[in-house]
Amino acid sequence: MITYSRLKVAHIRHLKAGYVLLTLLYDNQMTPPQPGQFFMLKPRNTIIARPISVHNFFSVLKKNYIEFLFKVVGRGTEELSDMKKGDMLPVWGPIGNSFPIPEDKRTAVLIAGGRGIAPLFFLATRLFEKKYEIHFFYGVKNSDELIHLLRIKNLSTKLYISTEDGKKGKKGFVTNLFQDAVGNYSSQVKENLLFDYEGKKSPVCYVCGPDIMIEKVCDISLTGRIKTYISLESHLACGTGVCLGCTVETRGGRLLHICKEGPVFDAEEFYCK
Ligand SMILES: Cc1cc2nc3c(=O)[nH]c(=O)nc-3n(C[C@H](O)[C@H](O)[C@H](O)COP(=O)(O)OP(=O)(O)OC[C@H]3O[C@@H](n4cnc5c(N)ncnc54)[C@H](O)[C@@H]3O)c2cc1C
Ligand code: FES
């Protein structure tokens, strides 16, 4: 259920490359968030609140905390980045659906581009708790944009890094790394049916990042017949299904709202192979 509240800033950390990690003391009257869901965060001096995905949710000494990871790109995020410990932040959420997690323990392939790491990190923590095998693909433009590398490494069975500046991991796009890996998966199919699409052990893919990256990943994953879930972004105004500002059209011509039916969608709604 979406609830409005004012949450206290417990901690704020300015990371590299304009990223900010904002930790808020959670209001226990609010529904606990699931990976993929987001909140509207309302900076004091902007009329419209900003949508930010849940990056983490955890308890310490019987208190619940929610964490947001965002990149400063404009006025709203700039103002959020200026918050101080003890400030109160108006928020509403949790909003939207969440990443479906299959009951059977199939390999989870997470593919994050840039700030797409925000929701996928939370998903990885949940998959790790449930003992899923996690193959994490993480690509950024510049190596200083790689966030939480050690923590992601600890959560992942296998971690693949790409940077466009080539200073860390493989130089180039994360989609190239993924393409190579899917090639490997296919050869394993022949050997042991590990990634047989119809079988229970086929992997499931979760993607978040720039639209062009999502499109390319889906091209690869759907060609490899891998079940794929994508998390979409757009400009959101109300976050509650009222303003219709976040409408996207599916392949079949259906109009869906990112804030209501999303932000997580089955990739086959938008892409096909
Ligand atoms: C469901 C959802 C979840 C999100 N989760 C995160 C998150 O976890 N971390 C994070 O850093 N960001 C996230 N975003 C994006 C974030 O909401 C925007 O960056 C933020 O609203 C920008 O506000 P601003 O006032 O700082 O910038 P503005 O002044 O509003 O915009 C600055 C620049 O960013 C562009 N922009 C703004 N919003 C978007 C958008 N949604 N898509 C593409 N371009 C945009 C504008 O066109 C402009 O060029 C999410 C967006 C959505 C829809
Ligand atoms: S943001 Fe208003 S309907 Fe989705």
Radius of gyration computed on alpha carbons:
18 Å
Strand order in the sheet with the most strands: 4-3-7-1-2-6-5
Q: Which superfamily, in CATH terms, is the homologous superfamily of the largest domain? A: Nucleotide-binding domain of ferredoxin-NADP reductase (FNR) module
Order of helices and strands: EEEEEEHEEHEHEEHEHEEEE
Distance between the termini: 36 Å
- The CATH architecture term of the largest domain is 3-Layer(aba) Sandwich
- What percentage of the residues does DSSP assign to strands (E)? 25-35%
Helix share bin? 10-25%
Q: How many helices? A: 5
Average of per-residue pLDDT values: 92
Overall structural class, as computed from helix and strand content, comes to: alpha/beta
Shape: globular
Unreliable segments (pLDDT under 50, ≥5 consecutive)? Answer: none
Q: Ligands in the structure?
A: flavin-adenine dinucleotide, FE2/S2 (inorganic) cluster
At the first level of CATH, what is the class of the largest domain?
A: Alpha Beta
CATH topology of the largest domain: Rossmann fold
